[in-house]
Amino acid sequence: MHASFLAAINQICSEKNVSPEQVLEAVRQAIATAYRKDYGNREQEIRVELQEGREEPLILLIKEVVDEVDNENFEINLSDAKKIKSDIDIGDEIEIDVTPTGYGRIAAQAAKQVILQKLQEAEKQSLYEMFKDREQELLTATVTKVEPNWVTLEIEGMTVSLPWKEQIPGEHYYTGKRIRVYLDTVELTGKGPQLRISRTHAGLVRKLLELEIPEVRNEDVDIKSIARDAGFRSKVAVASKDPRIDPIGACVGQKGVRIQSVMEELNGERVDMIEWSDDPIRLISTALQPATISAVIIINDEESVDGEGRRIKKRAAVFVEETQRPMAIGKKGQNIRLATDLSGFELDMYNYEELPAFKAKLAELQGGAIQIAEMDADGEIKEMGNEENEINEGNEENEVSKEAEKDIEEVKKED
Question: Domain containing 193 — which CATH number?
Answer without folding.
Answer: 2.40.50.140
